From TrEMBL:
SUPFAM superfamilies: Trimeric LpxA-like enzymes. The keyword Hydrolase does not apply. It comes from Timema poppense (Walking stick). This is Dynactin subunit 5. InterPro entries: DCTN5, Trimer_LpxA-like_sf. The keyword DNA-binding does not apply. Keywords: Cytoplasm, Cytoskeleton. Belongs to the dynactin subunits 5/6 family. Dynactin subunit 5 subfamily.
Length: 95
């Protein structure tokens, strides 16, 4: 698991490699032995079949997950800002 990765609520990640600066949406299933390269995005409700390789700067969506577009070249900066902001405003669950 790389740095500055955000995994949405209800998602299940069985990937072999998860790079850095990645946004995985809500309710996704990342199959076994998948490889998510740096700076990619997985849209909500996406199911990636086993052994899928997601190249850098791509956006995957659907079931089964396929490339549906690209992400901006500034994805690294966007994820840095997003994850730092999330961390700074994180409120733990009260018991």
């Amino acid at each position: 698991m790389g740095d500055h990765v955000f995994i949405g609520e209800g998602s299940v990640v069985n990937a072999a490699v998860v790079g850095s600066y990645i946004n995985i949406g809500k309710d996704c299933v990342i199959g076994r032995r998948c490889v998510l390269k740096d700076c990619c995005m997985i849209e909500d409700n996406t199911v990636l079949p086993p052994e899928t390789v997601v190249p850098p700067f791509t956006r995957y969506g659907g079931s089964p997950g396929v490339c549906v577009g690209d992400v901006p070249e500034c994805m690294q900066d966007l994820m840095l800002d997003y994850t730092r902001n999330y961390y700074q405003h994180f409120l733990p669950a009260l018991k």
